[in-house]
């Protein structure tokens, strides 16, 4: 039997485009992160999330980000390091009205500076996920 609270998390991995065997790194974990989102992702990939100190190449980075976490451009640059060529970064920020809420314009300003492109967003629990990728044109020039 599925608990009422689980219904909203059943499609989290789908919303985030996470598939079986993806290597997923988590950056910015703190006491306020949504453990149900983490559990849904771990269940999909069949393993635990890698922490920020992991050295592996990753398919997906989950970057938990709050208003007072510092410089988002720096955090994005760090997140790009282990990312596979076709990898994605999900910046997860608290929804409007929640402590630590980040204005979408703050993300939009940081993304191009970090050399990324914003492609979509998804609502997951009490967080908003913003999907970032390396622009195709940048890859073609390498």
Explained architecture:
The protein is α/β, with parallel strands linked by helices and 142 residues long. The chain has helices at 12-15, 35-45, 72-80, 104-113, 136-141, and strands at residues 24-27, 58-64, 83-94, 117-124, 127-133. A five-stranded mixed sheet has the order 1-2-3-5-4, sandwiched between helices. Strand 4 and strand 5 (127-133) form a beta hairpin. The longest helix is centred in the N-terminal third of the chain and has 11 residues, at 35-45. The chain is globular.
Roughly how many Å apart are the termini?
A: 51 Å
The radius of gyration computed from the alpha-carbon positions, rounded to a whole number of angstroms, is 15 Å
**Structural class, judged by helices and strands?**
alpha/beta
- Secondary-structure element series: HEHEHEHEEH
**Quantity of strands, as a count:** 5
How are strands sequenced across the largest beta sheet?
Answer: 1-2-3-5-4
Protein name: DUF3052 domain-containing protein
Pfam families: DUF3052
InterPro entries: DUF3052
What's the structural blueprint in terms of helices and strands?
Elements: H1 12-15, E1 24-27, H2 35-45, E2 58-64, H3 72-80, E3 83-94, H4 104-113, E4 117-124, E5 127-133, H5 136-141
Parallel strand pairs: 1-2, 2-3
Antiparallel strand pairs: 3-5, 4-5
């Amino acid at each position: 039997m599925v608990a009422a609270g689980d219904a909203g998390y059943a499609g989290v991995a789908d919303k985030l485009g996470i598939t079986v065997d993806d290597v997923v790194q988590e950056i910015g974990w703190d006491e306020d992160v949504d453990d149900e989102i983490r559990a849904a992702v771990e269940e999909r990939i069949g393993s635990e999330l890698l922490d920020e100190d992991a050295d592996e190449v990753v398919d997906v980075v989950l970057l938990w980000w709050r208003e007072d976490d510092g410089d988002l451009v720096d955090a994005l640059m760090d997140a790009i390091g282990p990312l596979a060529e076709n990898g994605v970064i999900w910046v997860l920020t608290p929804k409007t009205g929640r402590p630590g809420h980040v204005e979408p314009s703050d993300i939009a300003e940081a993304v191009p500076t970090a050399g990324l492109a914003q492609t979509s967003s998804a609502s997951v629990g009490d967080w908003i996920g913003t999907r970032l990728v390396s622009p195709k044109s940048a890859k073609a020039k390498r």
